Amino acid sequence: MKSRKRKGILARLLRLLAFRKRTAKIGLYGPPNAGKTTLANRIIHTFVDENEDMGVSTDVPHETRRAVRRGGIIIDLKSKSVQNPNPHSNPDSMLKRERAKLKLDVVDTPGLATKIDFHEFMAYGLEEEEAKRRAKEATEGVIEAIKWLDDIDGVVLVMDSTEDPYTQTNIVLIGNMEARDTPVIIAANKMDLSDAAPQRIINAFPQHSVIPVSALKGENMEKLYEEMTRRFR
Amino acid sequence: MEIKMDLISEDRINSMGSMEKLRFVLEGVKSGNIMVLEGGLTSEEQMSLIELTMTEVDEDFPGIEMSGYPSKKGFLNMRRKARLTVIGPAKIMRTMKKEKGLISAIISAF
Ligand SMILES: Nc1nc2c(ncn2[C@@H]2O[C@H](COP(=O)(O)OP(=O)(O)OP(=O)(O)O)[C@@H](O)[C@H]2O)c(=O)[nH]1
Ligand SMILES: [Mg+2]
Fold first, then answer.
1. What is the ipTM of this complex?
2. Mind telling me how many Å the CA of A167 is from chain B's nearest CA?
3. What is the A34 CA–ligand 1 centroid distance (Å)?
4. What is the three-class DSSP state of A90?
5. Residues of chain A contacting residue B90, judged by C-beta atoms under 8 Å apart
6. How far is CA B37 from the centre of its chain?
7. Where are the domains of chain A?
8. pLDDT tens for each residue of A135-157
9. How many domains does chain B have?
10. Does domain A24-231 fall into CATH 3.40.50.300?
11. DSSP-H helix ranges across A90-167
């Protein structure tokens, strides 16, 4: 991935050869409730098995408190479910068709946070003891997500488009990936909601590729998969 | 209730080792102070601080709020040192809002 900025043909070839052999480990990162597990499940449903789930998604934050890896996923843009309806309109569709395949492991991670207050879980109707246990597990989940960064080849940073994107955890995560030269794609999720403002995310991180999607409704997913095959191979 | 704010010079910060630095910040925040670091923490240091914070979160200490100004992106600026980082206890720092060149912290303690 370090060579992704190089443009030379030789470099490209070497890169292709190097990556043929291995699978990219892609981490789904982001704040709690952004839709990481929903996105992970959608990827599995589309490219592996309609009936398999990677994890449970609910509206309670810190639902995922252990990182989960699903290996051997092949994102194949020629597969029917994600076919571009108008492939001939694009002059480099030949090139794309050749490249539009990516072998990857997806890692669904616990939501990143700088604070975890058990009272928040009680507001979702959990009993005090259970809320405290969940808070404890959530802190361990955050640590696990951070530790996983060492083993990750690329990040899909999932943000909720209805929320302020300019949070310190988002900024710190992007800063860390830049320092490691690890590619990042921002998925501006929940674009189906009426108060979604993906433009706010684009404005906040102008130097990064931001793809508005709805993981829940399956909107604009091809764009995200295309970007993934481009950036993570 | 009194709230203490510590403004720490870059020299003081630089005299510390990386773990010492994070401990110093976290201990300060855990005892209720708002810590303002001249020169700030790098992204990596901030990530390590989040990690360390998570090991200390309990019923009385829900965690931290953090904000800052990152380095201006220079030509060979690989370290990406921040220019200023503010860290405070989440319990009293309700929100920290950041716009271009302005960080507003709302502190409520009662
Ligand atoms: N409207 C809408 N809701 C979504 C979308 N994606 C996820 N959600 C909802 O957002 C909530 C959180 O989704 P999750 O997938 O559990 O989020 P997460 O990022 O895995 O959350 P944690 O595991 O707690 O960090 C659930 O209620 C989802 O149904 C979307 O594209 N649109
Ligand atoms: Mg989840």
1. 0.91
2. 8
3. 5
4. coil
5. 114-115, 117
6. 7
7. 24-231
8. 999 999 999 999 999 999 999 99
9. 1
10. yes
11. 93-99, 118-122, 128-148
